[in-house]
């Protein structure tokens, strides 16, 4: 049986090998990256959308829904849209046209005053104003009167009137309650050539 031979390793070599291994382990531990820390989670406050008011609708046909709400012209009668032709006569005046425009609007024209509106109402109606619209009622009345007159609306009695506009500012009648055209007694007005005595157009 052959004999096993062992070679003696110097003790210094073992110490050197153990030192190298220990140094390697310490260096690896020192250079390892520290564990990543996650930032604390922040809670985000989310506001729920406010509930919208449901608008009632009605179906018209297969693909059309109509909102059951009044339009602007029904909420504010002065914003109603008109489209009409004033009957042309040789004697038609601005006053006749104002009465014709207002005949089914819900408003009425104030009676003429000798010191102010009588002059406006007696003016001849321009041919350019025989057809009005589509236009808002407020704009049509101001258009018939012209830029030298200021439209005044009394929503309580649904009466409209005009006061002259001076160059230096608004008319003194508009700024003084005592001189308002709605406060003075009405004077009788001659029949209109456009409208019959019943107030309906001929």
From TrEMBL:
Tell me if Signal is a UniProt keyword of this record. Answer: yes
Q: Give the signal peptide, or none.
A: 1-30
Superkingdom is Bacteria
Identify the InterPro entries for this entry: Integr_conj_element_PilL
For this UniProt record, the keywords arranged alphabetically read as follows: Signal
Low complexity: which segments have biased composition? 170-185
Q: Which residues form a coiled coil?
A: none
- Spell out the residue ranges making up region: Disordered: 165-202
Has the keyword Hydrolase been applied to this entry?
Answer: no
Q: Which NCBIfam families match?
A: conj_PilL (TIGR03748)
What protein name does the entry list? Integrating conjugative element protein pill, pfgi-1
- The species this protein belongs to is Caballeronia ptereochthonis
């Amino acid at each position: 049986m052959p004999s096993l031979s062992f070679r003696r390793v110097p003790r210094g070599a073992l110490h050197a090998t153990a030192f190298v291994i220990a140094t390697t382990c310490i260096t690896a531990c020192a250079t390892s990256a520290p564990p990543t820390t996650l930032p604390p989670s922040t809670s985000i406050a989310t506001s729920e959308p406010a509930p919208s008011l449901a608008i009632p609708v009605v179906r018209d046909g297969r693909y059309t829904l109509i909102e059951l709400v009044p339009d602007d012209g029904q909420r504010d009668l002065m914003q109603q849209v008109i489209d009409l032709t004033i009957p042309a006569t040789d004697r038609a005046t601005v006053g006749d046209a104002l009465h014709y425009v207002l005949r089914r609007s819900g408003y009425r024209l104030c009676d003429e005053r000798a010191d102010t509106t009588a002059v406006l109402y007696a003016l001849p109606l321009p041919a350019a104003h025989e057809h009005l619209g589509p236009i808002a009622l407020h704009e049509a009345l101001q258009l018939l009167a012209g830029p030298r007159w200021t439209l005044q609306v009394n929503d309580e009695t649904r009466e409209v009137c005009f006061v002259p506009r001076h160059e230096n500012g608004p008319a003194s009648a508009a700024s003084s309650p005592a001189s308002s055209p709605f406060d003075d007694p009405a004077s009788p007005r001659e029949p209109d050539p456009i409208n019959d005595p019943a107030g309906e157009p001929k």
